[in-house]
Design goal:
The protein is of the alpha+beta class. It is 27% helix and 28% strand. Strand 1 and strand 2 form a beta hairpin. Helix 1 crosses helix 3 and helix 2 packs across helix 3. The protein starts with a helix and ends in an 8-residue tail after the last helix.
């Protein structure tokens, strides 16, 4: 039940976040760099590979400590931390239930995503880098996890069109990564977290 609520909140925040664009007349947050960067996923894969987020007047130590606090709050555990170097790097391995949905009619399914990302800290900014995303089709227990490739999409045909039944997948990948990054940023900068899940 708790995971279902988290999924609903994730989708709500995705919709809110996806409508946040760069508007030349918009008031800029003084704590960030002027260009909002987000991940996109299309036939060419994930772009960019890393998102750098400047947090003005914040050193590596503060960014690192705030990130540790965010992990504890978001994941309710430090067990997701698989690697850490004080004030330099955090590597996270976690899952998100029913985060990728695809298929047609009776073959439509929603699966758990397993993901790994790193956060590095340097010169008043953090860098958010997805390392790996995979899923296993629950109907086939013998199947190994399927990796979601970052260099070229396996959900698009040779003409760059999304394969039938996978129309939502690129958006779901973008939403997962962008919402994790936005959640971290909001926590670090103590912004209103109304879009938080």
């Amino acid at each position: 039940m708790k995971k279902s609520i988290l999924l609903i909140l994730l989708l709500a925040s995705v919709l809110s976040f996806s409508q946040t664009g760069t508007n030349a007349n918009a008031k800029k947050d003084p704590t960030t760099n002027s260009n909002e960067k987000t991940f996109t996923y299309n036939s060419a894969g994930l772009n960019p590979n890393i998102v750098s987020v400047e947090v003005k007047n914040t050193n590596e130590s503060t960014l690192y400590q705030k990130s540790l606090e965010w992990i504890q709050e978001k994941y309710s555990s430090n067990n997701v931390i698989k690697k850490k170097e004080a004030n330099k790097l955090l590597r996270i391995e976690a899952t998100s239930n029913s985060a990728i949905c695809f298929g047609l009619d009776k073959d439509y399914t929603c699966e758990t995503l397993n993901y790994i990302f790193e956060i590095t800290f340097k010169n008043g900014e953090y860098r958010f880098e997805p390392i790996e995303i995979s899923y296993t089709v629950s109907k086939n227990k013998k199947e190994k996890a399927r990796d979601i490739t970052f260099k070229k999409s396996s959900f698009h045909d040779k003409n760059g069109e999304v394969d039938s039944g996978y129309e939502k997948v690129p958006f779901q990948i973008e939403a997962l990564l962008n919402n994790i990054n936005k959640s971290l940023f909001n926590f670090i900068t103590s912004n209103e977290q109304e879009d938080e899940w």
